[in-house]
Amino acid sequence: MKWGLGGDNSRPMFRRVMGCLGCAVTSTLVAVAAPASEWRETRFPDPPRRVVGVRWKSSELTAAMPLGGLGTGTVYMDSRGRFSGQALANSYRPKGGLMTHTGFTLLVKRGEATYRIPFEKIAGTCLGHFPVLDLEGKAETAQVSCSLRAFTPFVLGDARLSGTPAALFRVRLRNTGAQTVTAGVRFQWDTPRAGRPDGRGASGNVDGFLVWDLGELAPGATVRVPVLLVAARSAGALAGALAKPQGKIEVDDDGAFNWEDRRRQSLDTPDGPCLSQHGFCIWYTDADGNKHRAGARIVGAPRLESLRRAGRGPDGVRLHTADGDLSIGVRPGPGTLVYSLTNTGKAAVHDLRLAVYANLEARHTELNDRGRLDARLGAVVVSDPAGPVCVLASAGRPAMGGWVGTWRETIRIMRSGKFVPRTKWTGPDTGAGCRRASERKHGIGSFATCEQRPDHSGCTLTVLDGPDQTTTVAPETEAPGPGVVAVQASAELGPGQEQTFRFVLAWYYPDARDSGGKPVGHQYANWFADSAAVAEFAAVNWDDIQRKVGDWQERIYDSKAPAWLDDVAVNSLALLARNSSWIADGRFTVSESFVGCPITETIVCRFYGSVPTAMFFPELEKNTMRQFMRWQRKDGAIPFAFGGRERWDAPYYETQKILDSSEFIIMAQRDAVWWNDAKWAAECLPAVRRALAYARTLDTDGDGLINDELSRQYYDCWQMYGAGSYTSGIWLTALRAAAALGRAAGDPGFAADCDRLFEKASRRFEQELWTGRYYRLWNDSANGRRSDTCLAAQLTGQWAAFQCGLGWVSPRKHGLAALRAINEINGAGDVWALVNGITSDGRRDTSGTNGHSNSATLGETWCYAALCVRAGLTGMGLRRAKRLAENIALIQRRPWDTTWNIDPDTGRYLWGREYYSDLCVWDLWATLAGVRGLPGRGR
């Protein structure tokens, strides 16, 4: 689902592949602001010893690399060596923003002078090549230079090792002065607390509600509940804010407020706007014993549940329940909402309860916000580490219970009637509450662990022993907080001498939950008992891990693909690590985007994004495809996804059903071809037969092309009708793929049926959609309407057909003509990527919303380029791809955080952070490299 707002390497291998193309590519591109060196080779003394990438000044790079592997969770490390946005502690969404009390510090004693210098203060340059981040810095006053390498055990071809929840760090210090010094490194870590999926605390896009028990209400009687919503600069200023609330709260005609309707906050205080959404829910039992629920839903439709508007006046908004038993008034005041419930019926109502919901914003950076139910204040408290605090509290009548969670899920819980009784609320925030353990393991190094019982949730730091070094765990008395641990190492360095120090960060949080609170755990908990065990594994296998990471990277850089493509492809793998889940029962999945559009295995995105999984981790690809087969509906429909947000057992089907089953068929054939695996073809064939039978039911007019629900296709926010070039092209490829699977699995009768269906559909495809130059966007001939817009992705089905070894599914001359037309029409001007839709008179199509028709989609440009290469139009395709690569690496400077779409003119990232489908860049790489896996060793 896609909702939202919208200098070249001169190595010999590169020259041999590109020939004169390199000059053509460079000459057609406008000048861009770029670092002093663009894609260049850098040599290192340890694996990977040869890296091709862009080296930036640390102050210039705008993205941070996620450290973490397959399904392990991640923590970001930026170009200054700072940690932020951890998604380790049973959370799939990053928490906490910039981490305090965490990072590397240089310790230097030169004569009588002693220096403690955080690495971030001296960071000079940054070179990222996922899963490795290389940073360089120099401490001029201490006369010491430093290189810091961070990397994760992410190894192509080794899923087990890639699922290790650890990050490794190599710090190399060099004495640049004229006298001997004692130099060392301290690594300090503030252990994240395990998330509490029990409603008492949460981090991220925090929200919460309070519940009041109002008992019985007689006819004509009224009960009032005043609620405070306030903000303060700090916890110390909170008492004053509660005593004198300020700022009028905006209320809509439903007695609620939704930020998405207004694009502004409901409450603006002297300390800033802090309230995105608010609403309420009531429960009561009538005189006949019938139970009722009513309220303002905030999200969903209709917004009002069992309520009708009665109007608004100077005292606020009034509503009535559908049965006429109650009247509800919502009156705003300074930092206050007063809810008045009046019995307007003829009999008493019983068991009356009120819940008030608020989506509080401490600093509008949801990664930083942390919420809790505070027993001392009797309130929902949302805070930011930098100081701001927001509160939802009672003003007189104590709440009986409440809940704190994250957006949307909390609303569902509130409506269910579930809450945490006040007797179980927590006290003031007291930190990690970790059990500490320090240990020295002979021949390995020193270990410092901070964990919570009983499940051992927590982290371990390790400093490895090295020659002529002193390694130790920092005393607990030096820790600036209850969850902080530190290890350090030092050595004597003569003039010009250098020393290498090695560290491990390991984490272990086994109590991961799905979005409904159901325990799902992590696969790594089946392999390790705690974070100390992870750390020991990483420390003992340090050299082997480093060698394996270096080996696959150097093999990529030795491939036949151009340097800029190697760089973009390698760094794109951060998306696979960041978005993957590998839960305790063994199921492996990838989210569309945990931070953009969290849906588990959106099939229309995995159609693009599963390319590197299929290439490098075949068993994980089989794992996920088998889940699709498991959830196949009885009528043959393949699910659109396994569940919204983080759910693995809540598949749904009707969304984009015109694509779901067809794309499953194509991926099954693609995998069988890439792996040369007849057994896989046979395993998939029964599901493929049923999926094809279901897809055929979507041909509502019997012309051979499926057309049902064309409004729900890959571009969610772009209405289409009849037969579409995108969906019909994929259908043609699905028919050819099903036939090929049938032949491979020994079912020639099924293959022949598919061939006949293809012939009929192919003829209709040409009749309905070919314009003479390209394939039109859609044609609803039954109703006499069509769109001659030129779609950049009109040949996506052909792209997939080439992957499956099926050749041309449309006439070759039409395909070549369409490719040239797309280049000229959708690539007109100095655009950074192909514009999705251009009308027949040369304008950008604006019939879609949220940028779906007039922005540029990254994945479609990568696929177009790969298709051009396979069609023999290599230069034309690579010009488009290189232009996009330059935008990602040189202009946006966010190589590990690419989006679904961009502004075609400025290159600005628009919607869909860390987006799954962008991994299709690996198909372009494989097409140029000539391999569907790791190439053999080169030089």
Please tag this protein with its features.
26% helix; alpha+beta; 47 strands; 939 residues
Give structural notes.
The structure is a single chain. The chain is an alpha+beta fold and about 950 residues long. Helix content is about 25%, strand content about 30%. It has 21 helices and 47 strands. A ten-stranded antiparallel beta sheet has the order 1-2-9-10-11-12-37-34-33-32, with helices on both faces. The protein has a nine-stranded antiparallel beta sheet with strand order 14-27-28-29-16-25-24-23-22. β22 (about 305-315) and β23 form a beta hairpin. α13 runs antiparallel to α14 and α15 packs antiparallel against α16. The protein is globular. It starts with 11 loop residues before the first helix and ends in a 10-residue tail after the last helix.
Secondary-structure blueprint:
Blueprint: H1 12-18, H2 21-27, E1 39-43, E2 50-57, E3 65-67, E4 74-77, E5 83-87, E6 95-98, E7 103-110, E8 113-118, E9 123-129, E10 132-139, E11 144-151, H3 159-162, E12 166-175, E13 181-190, E14 201-203, E15 206-217, E16 222-232, H4 238-243, E17 257-258, H5 259-262, E18 267-269, E19 272-285, E20 291-296, E21 304-305, E22 307-313, E23 316-321, E24 326-333, E25 336-343, E26 349-360, E27 370-374, E28 379-383, E29 389-394, E30 401-406, H6 409-416, E31 420-421, E32 435-441, E33 445-452, E34 457-464, E35 470-473, E36 484-493, E37 498-508, H7 531-540, H8 542-557, H9 563-579, E38 580-582, E39 588-590, E40 599-600, H10 603-609, H11 611-616, H12 618-630, E41 643-644, H13 657-675, H14 678-696, E42 723-724, H15 725-744, H16 748-769, E43 776-780, E44 785-791, H17 796-803, H18 812-825, E45 837-838, E46 856-857, H19 858-870, H20 874-892, E47 901-902, H21 921-929
Helix pairs in contact: 2-20, 9-21, 12-13, 13-14, 13-15, 14-15, 15-16, 15-17, 17-19, 19-20, 19-21
